[in-house]
Amino acid sequence: MTSTPNNASTRSSVFEVVRTQLARVCREHRRDFDAEIHLESSLIADLGLDSLSLVEAVVALEQAFGIERLPLEALSEGSDEAYFTVGSLVDLCMRHTAVGIAVDEGMRT
């Protein structure tokens, strides 16, 4: 799939919502959390999410984007933890929502 300016802009907007929600969840679990969150950041190795905090982050994203259910198993389509990245979570959100409307709602929360 070729990235168009509109698609890149949408992905950037979705990333901002995902980054905000991940940072909030990470700070709730570790008050000293100050890591930079990038698309290539590992949810487990870089952000230190465990199974509980990962579920909390997914629920927050479902609410922010108005998604009924984000299938976490789609993040682990391979057996490698490399699939558990912020970028893969952004892509998952984009596939399961009407992004144009959801991004506006997610930015207001």
UniProtKB/TrEMBL annotation:
> Where is coiled-coil annotated?
none
Indicate the segments forming the Carrier domain, all copies.
Answer: 12-97
Q: Does the keyword ATP-binding apply?
A: no
> InterPro entries from the entry?
ACP-like_sf, PP-bd_ACP, Ppantetheine_attach_site
Out of the domains of life, which is the source? Bacteria
* PROSITE patterns named among the record's database cross-references: CARRIER, PHOSPHOPANTETHEINE
Question: Which UniProt keywords are present, listed alphabetically?
Answer: Phosphopantetheine, Phosphoprotein
Q: Report what the protein is called.
A: Carrier domain-containing protein
Question: What organism is this sequence from?
Answer: Paraburkholderia monticola
